[in-house]
């Protein structure tokens, strides 16, 4: 730490941080606790149900659903990474977190967010192949290729996020130790450093541009090619059918990127807004996408996702019937 130019050894670097619930109204945190608990419970239930249904139904063992499994696993990881501190802050008013605990949470949050972005890119490619070459779609995306894509997504996320803990550990924290949210993010932690955060800022900008920014470009290009392919289809009904298979994926993209952009805009240009707005945007950004992805892929009415919905219904009906027989 003392190797940082200009660092005064007499300064004491914070080893704990304070998480924030409702800014300025900590006594009202309990109002958010129960809705937040319900949200997390529904998130866990929804994603685990998706994984279970796809696992037991052989008809769903297709590339689209394997990518959906990857998305559900990533969303579960993000949910589990944030749930302890968020529920701790709002329910038990447990707002203090150690430096190492905060860095660990930050690391996993950013890994799972990177994975979500990579999986959405893979799903865009999947939709492109399904529409462009439906007869060879399954042949071009065998299980071995999907496994390699999953490994590549994980490795990219790990390599991108690996420097974050070391970049944070090198910083001295001698000012405020109060974070902006009820969980730890790299931008939120580094802004509390006394100095030396320029490397963190530069690395964070490079990562955003080279991963999330590049992912958005690839998704846009994929959908341009998809539209080009759809417009070449003679039948109007077949065009609508082809586009309808992309609706769930488009919703998942919006669910992931819109809260992220919204939170960035609020942080940059909304300093005059109520702290409650910042709190709501932060919670929506981290908690809502994992909740809505299973809903989008289960409720959407085109034939593919109807299979998931019907299988969930059959599973629940079978369990209910079995329970009734057991009671009788």
Automatic annotation (TrEMBL):
PROSITE patterns: G_PROTEIN_RECEP_F1_1, G_PROTEIN_RECEP_F1_2
Places the protein is found: Cell membrane; Membrane
Domain G-protein coupled receptors family 1 profile: 46-297
InterPro entries recorded: GPCR_Rhodpsn, GPCR_Rhodpsn_7TM, Olfact_rcpt, OR51/52/56-like
Membrane-traversing stretches: 31-53, 65-91, 103-125, 145-168, 201-226, 247-270, 276-299
PANTHER family on file: OLFACTORY RECEPTOR 51H1, OLFACTORY RECEPTOR 56B1-RELATED
Stated family: Belongs to the G-protein coupled receptor 1 family.
Name of the protein this chain belongs to: Olfactory receptor
Organism: Podarcis muralis (Wall lizard)
Gene: LOC114595396
